Amino acid sequence: MSTPDCDVFLVPTQFSSIGEAIAAVVRPTTIMVTPAIYKEDLSLIRLPNVVISTTQFQRRGVILTGAGVADSIIDIENTSVYLSGLEIRSNGCARAIAARESSLALQECVLAGNRIVSDEACGAAMYCVASSVRVQKSMIAGNQIEGVKKGTGGALYLSDCQIEIAGSSIQANAVYGSAEARGGGIYCECGRMRMWRSRVTENALFGKSCAGAGIYFKDSSARIGGSVITGNATVDGKGGGILISGDRAAIAINKDTTIRRNHPDDVAQD
Q1: What whole-number distance in Å separates Cα of residue 102 and Cα of residue 81?
Q2: Buried b (16+ CB within 10 A) or exposed e, 62-75
Q3: Per the confidence metrics, is the pTM higher than 0.90?
Q4: 265 inside domain
Q5: Which of 52, 132, 166, 178 is packed most tightly, with the most Cβ within 10 A?
C-alpha cells in the first residue's frame, strides 16, 4: 500500500516482522503493526522518516520484548522516527531505545521493565544524544540501571538534546551505582527541556554518591509547568526532587508545578 509520497507497510499481513518491514524502507514509510508480542530488535540507521504504529488506534497491544541480543531493543541513528501505541518491555534484558543524531517522538507509548547492566551505564529506558526528543502521553516506569560503578539516567539519559515532555509519567525508575548514581528519573546534560502536565514520581538512587533522584540538570536550560515532582529519593546524597549543576536561573519552574515530599530535599544546587 502506498501513495505518491510515502509507503504504508502492514505487519504481519505484508511483512512477517517489523524488522523485515524496516529493511524494505526506501522513502518515508508508515509501518502499521497488528497487536501481538514481537521478540525482535530493531535498527533504524540513516533511513527516511519512519512511523511505527499499532493498527488499533487509541489502544496499545504491540509489545516489543527484544531478541535478547542487542543492548537496545530499538537502535536509531540519523533517522526521524515516530512511535505510537507501542509497549517496549525487555523484562530486564536490555535498554528500550537508543537514539543518536536523530528525531524521536513517542505518543501513547509505554517503556517499562527495561534494564541495563554495564560499566558507567546510561539510560535504561532511553539513551539519546544530539537528538530532538518528544515524549507525549506516555509512561516510562520501572526501568533500572544496576550492577555498575557509575549509573546515569534510570529512565532517560539526554545529552545535547532538545526535549519536550508533555502529559507523561516517569515513575519508579532507579539507578544502583556502587560509586555514583545520577538522575533516577531524568538526566539532562547540555540540553534544552520543556516539560508540561507531567509527573516525575517515586524514582530512586542508590550508591555512595547520589544526586538528582527525580531530575538531574547539568549545564542545561528548562521550563517546567503544570507538573508534579514528588516521592523521589536518594539514600545518600542531595537533590531528591531536582539537582541543578550549572546556572540555577536557566531552570524555570512555574508556580503551578508541585515539588514536595522528596528525600532528602526538593531542589538542590550543585
Answers
A1: 8
A2: bbbbbbeebbbbbb
A3: yes
A4: no
A5: 52
